Each structure stands twice: as structure tokens, then as C-alpha cells.
Amino acid sequence: MIKxxxxxxxxxxxxKTLNVVSEHVEHSMDETEIHHLMxxxxxxxxxxxxxxxxxxxxxxxxxxxDDSGKRHYAPYWSEEQAKAVYESVKRSLPGExxxxxxxxxxxxxxxxxxxxLRKWFPxxxxxxxxxxxxxxxxxxxxxxxxxxxxxxxxxxxxxSK
Length: 161
What we know:
This protein has helices at about 1-5, 10-30, 30-45, 50-60, 80-90, 100-120, 125-140, 150-160; strands at about 65, 70-75. By secondary structure, it is mainly α. Strands 1-2 form a two-stranded antiparallel ribbon. A hairpin with a 5-residue loop joins strand 1 (about 65) and strand 2 (about 70-75). It starts with a helix and ends with a helix.
């Protein structure tokens, strides 16, 4: 209907139409559905890159379980620490990734790989483990044949595309 009757009507008509659709959607969805819709819309509008709000939300869900059965929850780096690491390595990353993409990827790579890194390198000091996680994160973000292109972090965790 929008394509049929709204085509060529200009930006003002697009905004009016969007307001009508939004009004109906918000009244027919529960909070969880609205939250998912907002994430999907944000993902489209941001070209698949994180902001602080969604980065913090996704990182808080991450954890790994060590050999003793103890869960270790993210974030493993503070936002300030992750930003400092990002600033030191951003020249090694595709230009589209921002500090929030990196923050999410860094925490995800540690939560996904820490147990195996500890197994492979049982005598690693914490700073050596962090260096390996940073290196793995850089490599993961530079993976050219992933199905999400330069939206890998967002796509991987939000199932876009």
C-alpha cells in the first residue's frame, strides 16, 4: 500500500505515514516485541553498528564457564579500557567498526574462547591472556568472508541479513 499510494509523495508524506504505522504498531505489541522492533530499526538505521545502549545490553548477557564450573560474566573490560584498546588497534580494523562494535566483539571473543585459551596455555598470565583475546578479536573483525560483511558484530548477535 505504501509503495502503491505513497511513491513519489515526498519526505513529508513518508513521515506522516511512518507516524500512522508507528501508532498502530505500538498499540498492538507488548514491550518485548517493541524492544525487538526498536533493535531491528536501529540496526537498519545504524548500518549494523553498535551504540552504547545496545552494546551494554548485549555484553551483559555474555559469560563463560571455567573448568571448576564457575561462571564469569562480562564485561571483562570496562568501557574505558575497551575504548583505550580500540584506540590502540583501530588502524588494524576495517574502518566501519566503531568503539562499541569493538567493545562487544572483545567481550564476546573472550567469553567464547577463554576456556580453550586457558586449556591451550595453562600458564598464561592475565595480561598475556588479554593480549591473545585482543589479537583474536582483531582477526575476527578482519574476517572478509563472513556473511555480514562490515556489519559482522551486529549481524552475528542480532541475526540480521
